[in-house]
Design brief:
Helix content: 40-55%
Number of strands: 3
Structural class: mainly alpha
Radius of gyration: 17 Å
Largest sheet: 3 strands, antiparallel
Strand order of the largest sheet: 1-2-3
Strand content: 5-15%
Number of domains: 1
Length: 103
């Protein structure tokens, strides 16, 4: 068992997961801004915020965006390089924010 455990690089895995998550958030941020610009809403595109980067990762969502109609959208990004049924973790805070927002 010890031989196997030594081969597994936990810190390396965590670093790769953080980089993957960051890349996913960057992609969603760019998509949200581009979609709003395409809809003629440059004013809203400029207001899209990368909350987890700017304020920290405790808000319960990663991106604060808008629909073309101006309604606020809170987006929690989950990124994987696995297949479509790869399970992911959702925190209690993320779930609470989603439930509150949908109510």
């Amino acid at each position: 068992m010890l031989h196997i455990a030594r081969k597994f690089d936990v810190a390396g895995r965590d670093e790769r997961n953080r980089a993957l998550g960051r890349a996913g958030e960057e992609r969603v941020l760019a998509h949200e801004r581009a979609a709003l610009r395409t809809a003629g809403r440059d004013d809203l595109a400029r207001k899209v915020r990368w909350v987890s980067e700017e304020d920290g990762d405790g808000a319960g969502y990663d991106i604060a965006s808008f629909g073309p109609d101006g309604r606020a959208r809170l987006i929690e990004v989950k990124t994987t390089n696995g297949w479509e049924r790869t399970p992911f973790h959702i925190s209690r805070n993320e779930l609470a924010v989603a439930e509150e927002w949908m109510a």
